[in-house]
Design brief:
The structure holds two protein chains of two kinds.
Chain A (H helix, E strand, L loop, with lengths): L2 H8 L7 E11 L6 H12 L11 E10 L2 H16 L5 E9 L4
Chain B lengths: L1 E6 L6 H12 L2 E6 L10 E4 L20 H10 L3 E5 L1 H8 L6 E3 L7 E9 L15 E8 L3 E3 L2 H9 L3 E6 L18 E5 L5 E4 L17 H13 L17
Parallel strand pairs in B: 1-2, 1-3, 3-4, 4-11
Antiparallel strand pairs in B: 5-8, 6-7, 6-9, 9-10, 10-11
Classes of the chains: A alpha+beta, B alpha/beta.
C-alpha cells in the first residue's frame, strides 16, 4: 500500500466524524531538575547568548485523529495523555487542537 | 521453586537472569514472552534489564502495555514476588506497581560501573539473608536511573520502610559522591507497600559469580529462594489470568 492510499484510508471519516490535528507539548514539572535544559542553556551561553533566563527541555507529539467534534477530540486526547503520552509524576502537558488533517 | 524471566522486545539481560537462577542458584526457570496473557506456575517473576521498545517515549512506558503486564499486575496484587531490575524497575514504575518515576541521570551520561548499595530493610523476601547496613557491590548500567518521587510519595516510602537499597560509599556512608545518578535520597531500590514487589537499578545478576569480580548480587536471588522454601504458602503457583485495567 502506498503512503498516499494508506493516508486516504486512515483519514476516511464517517459522515458524523471530522478530522482534527493535535499538538501535544510535554515538559518536566516546575521545580524538577532538568539537566538537558541546563546543558542547552550553557551551550547557548557559550555561543554568546548571555540574555537567557531559563531553558527547559521537553517533547512534542503531533497526532491526527477522527472525532465527532472538537469536544470529543479533546476528550480522547486528554485520555491518551493520561494513559500513555505523559507521566504525571514528573511531567506536565499542554495541547493545541484544530480541525484539519496532519500534513 | 520456579522463577519466570519476562522477555520484552529489547530486553537484553534476560539470559543473564536465566543463567544465574538455573546455573548459579540452581532453581527452575523459564522465559515468559511478553505476549503471554497468563502466567502460571511461578513463584517469582523477574523483569530483566534492557531497552524494551527502544526506550521510546519514556523508559518502560510502552512495555507497561504489553499483554503480559496485566497478568503480572494481578500476580503482584495477590502477593506474588516480582523483581524489576533496571529497565524492569522502570517498567514497574510506569505500571504503577511501584511509586515514583525515573529521570535522566544528573550527569546526562550513561553510567556503567560498580556501585555500592546499602541494605536498608532486611524484612523483605528479597533481602531476608542480608544484614541491615550490609554493603553490596553491584554494577549499574543506565542513563535513566535518577529516581524521583514527590514529598508525599517519599513520606510513604519512609513510613512503610519501602526503601530497600541506597547508594553509598564502600564503608556504607551516604554522600553525594557515592550517589552515581543523583537519585532522590540515594535510592537504588524500593519495594511496594506490601513488600512483594522490588525494583532496583543495580544488576544483581551481573554480580553473582566470582569470575565477574563480585558475588554480592546472588544474595537477592538466594533470599527469594529461602523465603519461598521456608513458607511454601508464599508460592502463587496457580494461574494468574489477566486482570482488569492496571490502575
Amino acid at each position: 500500500m502506498t503512503q498516499r492510499t494508506r493516508r486516504r484510508r486512515d483519514e476516511r471519516t464517517h459522515d458524523t466524524e471530522r478530522l482534527f490535528r493535535a499538538k501535544v507539548y510535554i515538559s518536566l514539572k516546575k521545580g524538577l531538575v532538568d539537566p538537558q535544559g541546563s546543558t542547552i542553556k550553557e551551550a547557548l551561553e557559550s555561543l554568546g547568548y548571555g540574555n537567557l533566563t531559563r531553558v527547559r527541555f521537553g517533547k512534542y507529539i503531533e497526532l491526527g485523529l477522527r472525532a465527532k467534534g472538537r469536544g470529543a477530540a479533546e476528550e480522547k486526547l486528554k485520555e491518551m495523555c493520561g494513559k500513555l503520552l505523559v507521566n504525571p509524576v514528573i511531567e506536565k502537558y499542554s495541547y493545541h487542537i484544530e480541525e484539519g488533517s496532519v500534513r | 521453586m520456579r522463577f519466570g524471566v519476562v522477555v520484552f522486545p529489547g530486553s537484553n539481560c534476560d539470559d543473564d537472569c536465566y543463567d544465574v537462577v538455573r546455573d548459579v542458584v540452581g532453581e527452575e526457570v523459564d522465559f515468559i514472552w511478553h505476549k503471554e496473557r497468563r502466567v502460571e506456575g511461578f513463584d517469582c517473576l523477574i523483569l530483566p534489564g534492557g531497552f524494551s521498545y527502544g526506550d521510546y517515549l519514556r523508559t518502560g512506558a510502552i512495555a507497561r502495555f504489553s499483554p503480559v503486564m496485566k497478568a503480572i499486575g494481578s500476580f503482584a496484587r495477590r502477593g506474588g514476588l516480582v523483581i524489576g531490575i533496571c529497565n524492569g524497575f522502570q517498567i514497574l514504575l510506569e505500571s504503577n506497581l511501584l511509586p515514583g518515576a525515573m529521570m535522566k541521570n544528573r550527569s546526562l551520561r550513561f553510567i556503567c560501573k560498580f556501585a555500592n548499595i546499602r541494605v536498608e530493610n532486611n524484612l523483605t523476601p528479597f533481602t531476608s539473608l542480608c544484614q541491615i547496613g550490609q554493603v553490596l557491590r553491584i554494577p549499574i548500567a543506565h542513563i535513566d536511573g535518577r529516581y524521583y518521587a514527590d514529598d508525599e510519595i517519599m513520606r510513604g516510602l519512609k513510613e512503610n520502610n519501602q526503601i530497600i537499597f541506597r547508594y553509598c560509599s564502600e564503608d556504607g556512608e551516604l554522600s553525594q559522591e557515592s550517589n552515581p545518578n543523583g537519585s532522590k535520597d540515594f535510592i537504588a531500590g524500593i519495594s511496594n507497600r506490601s513488600g512483594n514487589v522490588l525494583g532496583l537499578m543495580p544488576h544483581p545478576e551481573r554480580a553473582s559469580e566470582s569470575i565477574l569480580s563480585s558475588e554480592d548480587g546472588r544474595v537477592v536471588f538466594e533470599s527469594v529462594v529461602s523465603t519461598v522454601k521456608r513458607s511454601p504458602r508464599r508460592s502463587l503457583r496457580n494461574d494468574c489470568p489477566p486482570s482488569e485495567e492496571i490502575s
